[in-house]
Structures are given as structure tokens and as C-alpha cells.
Write a structure and sequence with these properties.
This protein is 30% helix and 20% strand. It is an alpha+beta fold. Strand 6 and strand 7 form a beta hairpin. The longest helix is centred in the first third of the chain and has 24 residues.
């Protein structure tokens, strides 16, 4: 079966959702061009927008090695994923989750308050992104407390 120019135009108009029942071809052409321009403007705005426009990011928070708890099997992980506005808020939520003591005599009192913890900012992929592995080089790592953060 051959594919004619008329068939091609019918398919293009159908894809653009353009009504071609009008006898004046310029009306259909104007509608098709307006739809193409609208789609191009959306694509341009989408490309210009940052990859993530979220108020919250996903962070992985965990203590630095010398602050790890140990049991008979070795180190006990206190790593935790949290949604937070920034790395400092992530540390605060992490401390609340593990109910770390604020008692000055406790060894937990300083973790995340004066002693920094590691905070990894997990990249959020845009909807149109293809599946891929994320290299550690592409992840921002902070040494953070509940009041400050510095990129490592």
C-alpha cells in the first residue's frame, strides 16, 4: 500500500488534532501552525526549566564513621532517607527520627549539632529522563549540622 502526500497530511493533522472539514485550507493550516508553535513553546519552557523544581529534595543522611554504633555484628547503620527543604533540615529530621539525646553528657548530643554528619542529595530525575545509573560524582555531599552545611 502506498502512502500518499494526502495520507501524510491527514496523519499530521490528526496528530495535531486539527479539524480539516473546512473548505478553506488556510484555516486548517493556520490551526496546524498554531498548534505546532504552542507545542514548541511548551518544549522550550520545559528545557529552560531546572531539572527539578521541587520544594523538597530527597536526602540520605548518616553519621560519619566515628559516630557509628556498634554491636556484635559490627557497625549499626543509622542511614536514613528524608524529604527536606535543605541539608540542615534533613539533619534535624534525622535526629528526630532516631530520637538522639540533647543531654550534654550523652555522646549523641553533638552528632548533627556541632559534629557534622554526611548528607547526600539524591538527584531527582525529570519525568522524560531515561533509566540510568547515577555516578557518585553526580551526587552533592554535604557535611551538615542542623544550622549549617558545607559541600564536601
Amino acid at each position: 500500500m502506498s502512502y500518499s502526500p494526502c495520507d501524510y497530511m491527514d496523519d499530521v493533522n490528526a496528530a495535531l488534532n486539527v479539524d480539516v472539514d473546512d473548505e478553506d485550507v488556510s484555516v486548517s493550516a493556520d490551526a496546524a501552525l498554531a498548534e505546532i508553535e504552542r507545542l514548541q513553546a511548551i518544549e522550550k519552557a520545559h528545557k529552560a526549566a531546572p531539572a527539578t523544581t521541587m520544594e523538597r529534595m530527597l536526602y540520605l543522611v548518616g553519621p560519619i564513621g566515628d559516630h557509628l554504633d556498634w554491636d556484635n555484628d559490627g557497625p549499626v547503620s543509622r542511614d536514613l532517607f528524608v524529604w527536606a527543604a535543605d541539608a540542615s533540615e534533613a539533619v534535624k529530621l534525622w535526629r528526630e527520627y532516631y530520637d538522639l539525646s540533647d543531654d550534654e553528657d550523652s555522646s549523641e548530643a553533638c552528632i548533627g549539632i556541632t559534629d557534622k554528619v554526611r548528607v547526600f542529595e539524591v538527584p531527582i530525575m525529570p519525568n522524560a529522563a531515561t533509566s540510568t545509573a547515577i555516578k557518585w560524582d553526580d551526587i552533592y555531599v554535604y557535611g551538615a549540622t542542623i544550622t549549617e552545611r558545607v559541600e564536601i
